[in-house]
Write a sequence for this structure.
């Protein structure tokens, strides 16, 4: 049925809620509405859920500029406050409009709403992308590379959040990789790049030390701490305790 309706579906990586941004944003809004209820009614939020959804669907969305009800039915919702306002201003009258004219007008409004909503949504997405790309950095890994893996939920309180090293098996998409975790339950898992960090072996790290050969001609030479002049300066600056004998003091200075 979804093929006949032209619906396409996409897979998302687990433990990466940013992929379902629209759904997660709705869940956040709905939770805020439930938390705004009085404490007595908050315990029975499931009974009041239809009322909360009705209130959500009649409010215009910032991204598209229309309310969900208006995009679905082609006209603004007539809520309780709207009905009260109509009763105050003028009595309710039955609409005198032909069915064919109503359907044609509805189709025209729906097409206009969808065109404006698509334009507003595209502008909103471009703005969000600009904000996101300011600090976003594309990280790529190669098959066989060692990485750390971020565990979203630690099974124990004192367990590390990062596990590894694990091996990259294959690049599945632009930001997803197939990683060999080496566990019996799920040895291979598709992970988002945000949950990966490069692993560096200690044997691959090299300590860079400054030498006289690598210095430039104009730079100051490194001090020679083992020259006789430097040794004399160090010896003169040493203060020995008075409780030591002369032989002990000479032994300390010589050593």
């Amino acid at each position: 049925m979804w093929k006949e309706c032209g619906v396409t579906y996409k897979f998302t990586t687990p433990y990466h809620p940013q992929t379902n941004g629209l759904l997660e944003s709705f869940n956040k809004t709905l939770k805020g509405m439930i938390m705004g209820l009085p404490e007595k009614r908050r315990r029975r939020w499931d009974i009041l859920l239809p009322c909360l959804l009705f209130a959500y669907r009649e409010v215009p969305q910032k991204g598209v500029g229309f309310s969900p009800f208006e995009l679905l039915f082609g006209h603004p919702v007539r809520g309780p406050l709207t009905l009260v306002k109509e009763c105050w201003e003028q009595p309710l009258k039955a609409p005198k409009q032909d069915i064919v004219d109503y359907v044609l007008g509805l189709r025209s409004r729906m097409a206009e709403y969808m065109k404006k909503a698509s334009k507003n949504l595209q502008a909103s997405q471009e703005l969000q992308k600009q904000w996101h790309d300011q600090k976003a950095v594309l990280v790529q890994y190669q098959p066989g590379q060692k990485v750390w893996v971020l565990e979203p939920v630690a099974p124990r309180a004192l367990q590390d959040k990062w596990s590894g090293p694990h091996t990259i098996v294959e690049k599945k998409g632009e930001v997803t990789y197939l990683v060999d975790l080496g566990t019996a339950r799920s040895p291979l898992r598709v992970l988002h790049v945000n949950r990966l960090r490069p692993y560096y072996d200690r044997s691959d790290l090299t300590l860079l030390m400054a030498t006289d050969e690598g210095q430039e001609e104009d730079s100051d030479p490194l001090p020679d701490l083992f020259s006789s002049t430097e040794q004399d300066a160090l010896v003169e600056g040493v203060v020995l305790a008075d409780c030591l004998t002369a032989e002990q003091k000479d032994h300390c200075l010589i050593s």
Summary: The two ends are 91 Å apart (CA to CA). The mean pLDDT is 78. The chain is about 40% helix and 10% strand.
